Amino acid sequence: xxxxxxxxxxxxxxxxxxxxxxxxxxxxxxxxxxxxxxxxxxxxxxxxxxxxxxxxxxxxxxxxxxxxxxxxxxxxxxxxxxxxxxxxxxxxxxxxxxxxxxxxxxxxxxxxxxxxxxxxxxxxxxxxxxxxxxxxxxxxxxxxxxxxxxxxxxxxxxxxxxxxxxxxxxxxxxxxxxxxxxxxxxxxxxxxxxxxxxxxxxxxxxxxxxxxxxxxxxxxxxxxxxxxxxxxxxxxxxxxxxxxxxxxxxxxxxxxxxxxxxxxxxxxxxxxxxxxxxxxxxxxxxxxxxxxxxxxxxxxxxxxxxxxxxxxxxxxxxxxxxxxxxxxxxxxxxxxxxxxxxxxxxxxxxxxxxxxxxxxxxxxxxxxxxxxxx
Length: 374
What we know:
Elements: E1 32-40, H1 43-53, E2 56-60, E3 64-68, E4 77-81, E5 86-93, H2 97-107, E6 111-113, E7 121-126, E8 132-137, E9 177-185, H3 188-199, E10 202-208, E11 219-223, E12 231-232, E13 236-240, E14 245-252, H4 256-268, E15 272-279, E16 286-291, E17 297-302, E18 306-307, E19 314-317, H5 332-335, H6 341-355, H7 362-371
Parallel strand pairs: 1-4, 5-8, 9-13, 10-19, 14-17
Antiparallel strand pairs: 1-5, 2-3, 3-4, 6-7, 7-8, 9-14, 10-11, 11-13, 12-18, 15-16, 16-17
């Protein structure tokens, strides 16, 4: 029997002349992902799902909704009322205001104060896909909230729980923090290089289409460069595809029980699981994906990898089975090929991309089609 996971773990590094996964002299090195910004027409509906998913509201007006986790930090998600649902862009945290100024001077942009509800300053850039990328510093940190505690587990022959049962409550999994965002680009390499050069991010893992490694990678999992301080395996992930769009965002919760019981709470309240529960390969996170009422894909995760700056990028082929070490097969909804409106929109995007001058050509389309069957 062929093991579909053979060779899919990315312990193997780059070949000579392949992408190094980092810029030699980046303008700055961001510290973390600060928040994500969206427009949505129905803030009440968005807030109801957010509370079921495990967020806490930190600000609510007629036009704006801020959602936070339990960690001491800025809000995770900012939602403003708009005529249609759309992703506006990510905000990254700089080390300090001097880095924001340095980035503004290098790009010919302007540093501006943020609203008092957030505090601090920002510089707004535009990546090669047209997505607004905000870099901020000196923002207000909201005080920490009571956190959901991991359950004590009897592991092997080392019990820690005696004369007590295990009864995780079926309640929302309390979001601790924002972990990462995944974006799709028709100009993947150009966009990747832009983030590495402007924000000092470094690649943890590259994926390539089987049989097309010589054409370069088509997906990268990218982390912050904090030197010897370990950081998430990926804060940003980029993938080549037929449209420039948001793919999903991920939010850390306490442990597997919080994730699973929180999923049962979401299911009982009529929300739709997209894919899960399983454990990823790149990043190793235990995951569970859900669709919010506006169709955005969001992930609960726990137990992710942490890397310092010494690890070089790994390389592996992209396959559907290679998205997880264990768990159910990746669904058509998660892969973006669910029959109906989702599949029609993807077909239109493919047709449009093939008519334009970008990195998504017929060879790449063939590689992408193979992913769903391998």
